[in-house]
Amino acid sequence: MEQKFPLPPFTKETALQKVQLAEDAWNSKDPQRVSLVYTVDTTWRNRDQFINGREEVIRFLTKKWEKELDYKLKKELWSFTDNHIAVCFEYEWHDQAGNWFRSYGNELWEFNADGLMQRRLAAINDVPINYKDRKFRDKEDILLAC
Question: I need a surface site. Which of 24, 65, 93, 122 has the fewest CB within 10 A?
Fold first, then answer.
């Protein structure tokens, strides 16, 4: 039996843990790793796309991170109940042409009893930004900006 801890019902502490684990996984930019926190038959709405199952999740994330280069994400717990968590997030990335964006969004997550996410609903907006206006910089970027 597949389980991903922490398991519902969530407390504030375990909901915060789940959010941090998700942030860490997505920042790995490893579609296979990320897919393992979802049920085999997971359903997503991501912007205007509908994704069904882990295999589609892997394909979706592979394409995403081929387009969204130098992706860096920060998630924040918004609320939670027994087996639901709501998060707000922002992430930065650039395209092949070097245009930078900050993407803002909200996600609603529903988990099964084994702690796997069975449903993810995401609303996301992209805002063009200047390179110098980035929030999520690596140490090397900060040194270059000085």
Answer: 24
pTM: 0.92
Could you report the per-residue pLDDT of 44-68, keeping only the tens digit for each? 999 999 999 999 999 999 999 999 9
* Coarse DSSP helix, strand, coil percentages of the chain, rounded to the nearest 5 percent: 30, 40, 25
pLDDT in tens, 65-107: 999 999 999 999 999 999 999 999 999 999 999 999 999 999 9
Spatial contact of 120 and 111, defined as CB atoms under 8 Å apart: no
The domains of the chain, with CATH numbers, are 12-145 (3.10.450.50)
Sign of CA dihedral 89, 129, 57, 3: negative
Strand partners, 38: 117
Residue 102 CA to residue 93 CA, distance in Å, equals 7
